[in-house]
Design goal:
CATH class: Alpha Beta
CATH topology: TIM Barrel
Strand content: 5-15%
Number of domains: 1
Helix content: 40-55%
Number of strands: 8
Mean pLDDT: 91
Order of helices and strands: EHEHEHHEHEHHEHEHHHE
Largest sheet: 8 strands, parallel
Distance between the termini: 18 Å
Length: 274
């Protein structure tokens, strides 16, 4: 069985310097796909850049934490914990909120091929149900499965991230059931959660050597860290430039070829269902 790899950047539309880094990673590196934030401050800039990069596969980065609602204009909860509390009190209708986001992307002339969520909030039951419904409604086949495959051999992953990754895996059974019922598909494997903020060339080379047979999505966050990102509400700042260097490193491209890895976008994937 072949090894297929989708290298997917989150946060397209977040800031102009993040947008520019994503395009650089696609044009001169191994990045094949990205997901667009419909409520991002640089949404229009991202749409413009997408028109200049027809080979960049674009999906929806669904946001319910941080940023503002396209429905009410009010800010979303600042943390996942506060979002979960708001969902429990039924203060947020995830379907209505996320439908507005997908619709804005479609109305901008982009047909999204895949869905994922900021902070992996589609693991929450009500959000996952909304995402499955939207996938059917808009004809979007692919949804991210945010469960890292075992990466102990990489080393250097802090204990909190490893434990959090294991905790996310507890939702795997319901996640698979809901998406299968909706006719959605996922890659066979996923990587990136435990690497967030610590993504560098050496670690990427080790990951490529460990890549399992089948299809894998690698989540990443490349970008340039200039004034726009410096003032943005995110912990990922200088690390985005480190990721960009890794994704465009000649030795990384050579490793992809050496290990027989096929770089694909979602249209080129051959995968089992969720």
């Amino acid at each position: 069985m072949i090894r297929q790899l989708v290298v997917n950047a989150d946060d397209f539309g977040f800031t102009p310097d993040v947008n520019r880094g994503i395009l650089e990673a696609h044009r001169h590196g191994i990045l094949t796909a990205t997901t667009l934030m419909a409520n991002g401050d640089a949404f229009e800039d991202a749409v413009r850049l997408a028109g200049e990069a027809p080979t960049l596969d674009i999906g929806c980065h669904l946001v319910l934490v941080g940023g503002r609602s396209l429905v009410a204009g009010s800010p979303y909860p600042p943390t996942v914990t506060k979002l979960l509390a708001a969902l429990a009190r039924r203060e947020i209708d995830p379907y209505r909120e996320l439908q507005a986001q997908v619709r804005r992307i479609v109305e901008a002339g982009i047909h999204p091929t895949h869905l994922d969520s900021h902070k992996h909030t589609h693991l929450a039951p009500s959000v996952l149900d909304a995402v499955a419904r939207l996938a059917r409604e808009f004809g979007i086949s692919w949804v991210r499965r945010p469960f890292d495959f075992p990466m102990g051999a990489l080393g250097g992953v802090p204990r909190l991230e490893r434990l959090t990754s294991l905790a996310l895996g507890l939702a795997r059974r319901r996640f698979r059931r809901v998406l299968t019922r909706a006719g959605c598909r996922t890659t066979d494997y996923f990587a990136g959660f435990q690497l967030t903020g610590r993504f560098h060339t050496g670690g990427l080379l080790k990951l490529l050597a460990l890549l399992p047979k089948g299809s894998t999505e690698l989540m990443c966050h490349p970008g340039y860290c200039t004034d726009a990102l410096r003032h943005a509400p995110t912990r990922l700042k200088d690390s985005r430039e480190e990721e960009l260097r890794a994704l465009t490193a000649p030795e990384v491209r050579a490793a992809v070829e050496r290990h027989g890895i096929e770089l694909v976008d979602y249209a080129g994937l051959r995968s089992r269902s969720a």
